[in-house]
Recover the amino acids of this structure.
């Protein structure tokens, strides 16, 4: 609580001079934070306070007031962490209510579903938040309506559509003042409006030139470079008053450095990064790696949405088609030291397509939603591990292909039982097929000495540092090569029911409760390092579905000058999927097992209130009690299943999260202005199941002030993010020489200019 009290005092001190020294205000940006916002959490437009689940919706106006640049900057939602994994740029590692996945294995599906413009995209990517209409974070299982892999919750991102009047926005941002590395520049432009009575268009262009926040002591140059460009185009056609066709196309390319990896000793007496001089201080941004690495990727997405009003039940028929492709090539310095110990090139290609058709209708005694969806995913990737002559001089190759085909039928009904009490019931039935062809990194290791078939090759006279891509590998998965030692297919079926009651005590107060069951897909681990002949139980799988059963009770209260939401939840997890990490001869050995059952329960408070007409307070609190009920696998790795395993912390489950923020409006002569200060805290969490890798507590202070011209066409802003310069790691993974721990950025100070016309 010491940090909480000191930061609250700091925030208040920052605001007091503004209140007394400047003119009274006439702007209402602070009040934007208490405005009722629209959500699509139940596949229809509703006010957030009317939806009987725990949800935080951030509208486009609130995104602007809070200056949210991407999802990772949202730190004010209780029991939610929208982090990146750090292994590669913009790869998410989201966690909601203690449920998240602690790996970057491409074939592993997250328990937090990501949905872009109504299309499920699996793990998704952490893109920039420019020109976004809303960000919706749904806590708790959403399987009945949103579908598979949402047992923790779902993140919905909706981009802006063209408005009825032509409008354009240009944004320029420049930050990095005081960074140990280089500067970071953004240029963003959006423009759109009507071309005729029936046709509207919108185009968005985004460029980012980041020289890298970190400084690499190995060559005294900035590290963390990112150069990215994005284009999104939207066309909306209204052939009639009852029909709308919306087409969106997005393309994005990124070119940057590999992970800014540290190596440090995980525990006293443990491995010290080969050489004690290579052991970094985990509480500092010290970086010293001999392989800067790179990441090149390209994403293309097409979304088609057709909406047709029908007379039946004053209803709406919606069809959504999504098609996306993602390609990536990268290399990273996994050892995190200035020595060549373990470097890892990778190549990946992922194609997704989906269809959904649904009907929403409202009849005299009930509202109904009914729909059908299909989902297909083709994944191919090749991972390498390069070990120098001092460690055997070998090249390891692995990966393979995976195909997913899934279909689902879903339906929900809302029926008033009385003037104040409403019953809602729903169900989703899902069938899923997966087939894989896996090339284990260890395949053929027993034949290595005799020259038999193997995915491991001696480097001989080859320079290990010159191998930068799977295109240089001795066998190539992308052309059908490498030894496939595991070929399998499996099918799963699941039924996700929900039943809930909502009681409207008065027009401002709603109580709700529900019980829901959801599932996380079963599947395969395509990053297999285990030697199948010796440890078949640690091979690619398959592992079974994970089931989450949740009770939640809550209250939503609309206040005269704000809102207060409180919820309590309890989730029972069965057949828990855990990504277990062990140190191995060629880096981390990761395998996925169903390890037992657990219970997670907690309390969440979310308050937004206008302290004055020109000052808004935001306060959130989340508590989480996560414990194993039964353990069926030796998680600790000590050879027995006992209380040592059961007493381990569940990964990604922070005991407490909280945040407090203030937004204050004022005038500076003819200009309007808005200042903000926010502080967020998250407890220390375990990254891996045996608790060797721990991520330190997060202690984030953000500050900023924006000035708006009398015409409101010009906005000049100054911002500071992570002003306490808290060290953050995307993950902390045990390896045989210490740890692989990629750093996130620290304190960022910058300026921004927005011109609207």
């Amino acid at each position: 609580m010491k940090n909480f009290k000191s930061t609250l005092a700091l925030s208040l001190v920052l605001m007091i001079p503004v209140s007394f020294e400047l003119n009274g205000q006439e702007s209402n940006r602070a009040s934007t934070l208490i405005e009722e916002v629209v959500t699509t959490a139940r596949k229809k437009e509703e006010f957030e306070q009317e939806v009987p689940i725990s949800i935080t919706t951030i509208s486009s106006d609130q995104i602007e007031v809070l200056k949210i640049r991407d999802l990772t900057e949202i730190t004010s939602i209780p029991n939610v962490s929208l982090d990146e994994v750090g292994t590669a740029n913009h790869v998410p590692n989201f966690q909601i209510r203690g449920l998240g996945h602690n790996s970057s294995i491409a074939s592993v599906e997250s328990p937090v579903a990501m949905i872009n413009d109504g299309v499920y995209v699996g793990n998704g990517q952490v893109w920039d938040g420019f020109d976004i209409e809303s960000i919706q974070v749904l806590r708790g299982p959403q399987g009945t309506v949103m579908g598979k892999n949402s047992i923790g919750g779902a993140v919905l991102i909706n981009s802006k559509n063209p408005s009825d009047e032509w409008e354009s926005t240009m944004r320029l941002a420049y930050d990095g003042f005081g960074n140990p590395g280089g500067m970071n520049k953004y240029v963003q432009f959006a423009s759109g409006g009507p071309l005729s009575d029936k046709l509207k268009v919108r185009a968005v262009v985004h460029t980012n030139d980041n020289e890298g926040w970190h400084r690499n002591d190995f060559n005294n140059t900035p590290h963390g470079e990112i150069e990215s460009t994005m284009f999104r185009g939207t066309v909306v056609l209204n052939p009639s008053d009852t029909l709308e066709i919306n087409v969106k196309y997005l393309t994005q390319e990124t070119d940057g450095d590999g992970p800014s990896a540290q190596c440090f000793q995980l525990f006293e007496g443990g491995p010290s990064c080969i050489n004690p001089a290579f052991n970094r201080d985990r509480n500092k941004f010290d970086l010293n790696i001999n392989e800067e690495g790179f990441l090149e990727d390209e994403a293309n997405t097409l979304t088609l949405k057709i909406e047709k009003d029908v007379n039946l039940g004053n209803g709406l028929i919606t069809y959504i088609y999504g098609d996306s492709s993602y390609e990536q090539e990268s290399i990273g310095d996994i050892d995190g030291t200035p020595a060549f110990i373990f470097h890892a090139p990778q190549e990946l290609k992922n194609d997704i397509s989906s269809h959904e058709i649904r009907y929403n209708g409202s009849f005299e005694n009930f509202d109904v939603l009914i729909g059908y969806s299909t989902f297909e995913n083709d994944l191919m990737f090749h991972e390498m591990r390069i070990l120098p002559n001092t460690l055997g001089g070998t090249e390891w190759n692995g990966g393979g292909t995976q195909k997913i085909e899934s279909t689902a039928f879903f339906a929900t009904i809302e029926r008033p039982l009385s003037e104040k009490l409403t019953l809602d019931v729903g169900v989703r039935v899902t069938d899923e097929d997966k087939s894989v062809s896996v090339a284990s990194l260890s395949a053929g290791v027993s034949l290595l000495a005799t020259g038999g078939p193997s995915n491991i090759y001696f480097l001989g006279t080859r320079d290990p540092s010159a191998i930068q891509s799977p295109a240089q590998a001795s066998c190539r998965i992308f052309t059908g090569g490498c030894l496939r030692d595991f070929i399998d297919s499996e099918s799963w079926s699941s039924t996700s029911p929900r039943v809930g009651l909502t009681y409207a005590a008065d027009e401002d107060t709603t109580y709700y409760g529900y019980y829901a069951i959801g599932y996380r897909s079963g599947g395969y681990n395509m990053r297999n390092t285990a030697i199948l002949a010796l440890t078949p139980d640690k091979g690619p799988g398959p592992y079974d579905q994970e089931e989450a059963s949740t009770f939640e009770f809550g209250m939503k209260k609309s206040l005269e000058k704000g809102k207060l939401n409180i919820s309590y939840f309890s989730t029972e997890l069965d057949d828990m999927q855990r990504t277990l990490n062990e140190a191995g001869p060629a880096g981390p050995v990761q395998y996925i097992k169903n390890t037992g059952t657990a219970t997670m329960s907690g309390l969440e408070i979310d308050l937004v209130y206008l302290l004055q007409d020109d000052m808004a307070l935001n306060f959130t609190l989340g508590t989480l009690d996560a414990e194993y009920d039964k353990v069926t696998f030796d998680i600790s790795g000590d050879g027995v299943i006992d209380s040592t395993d059961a007493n381990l912390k569940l990964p990604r489950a922070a005991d407490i999260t909280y945040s407090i923020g203030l937004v204050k409006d004022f005038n500076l002569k003819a200009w309007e202005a808005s200042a903000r200060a926010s502080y967020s805290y998250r407890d220390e969490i375990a990254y891996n199941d045996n608790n060797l890798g721990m991520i330190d507590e997060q202690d984030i202070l953000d500050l900023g002030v924006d000035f708006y011209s009398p015409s409101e066409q010009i906005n000049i802003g100054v911002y500071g993010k992570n002003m306490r310069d808290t060290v953050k790691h995307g993950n902390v993974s045990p390896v045989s020489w210490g740890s692989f721990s990629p750093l996130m950025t620290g304190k960022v100070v910058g300026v921004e200019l927005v011109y609207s016309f």
Q: What stands out?
A: Residues 240 and 652 are 50 Å apart (CA to CA). Confidence is low (pLDDT under 50) at residues 4-26.
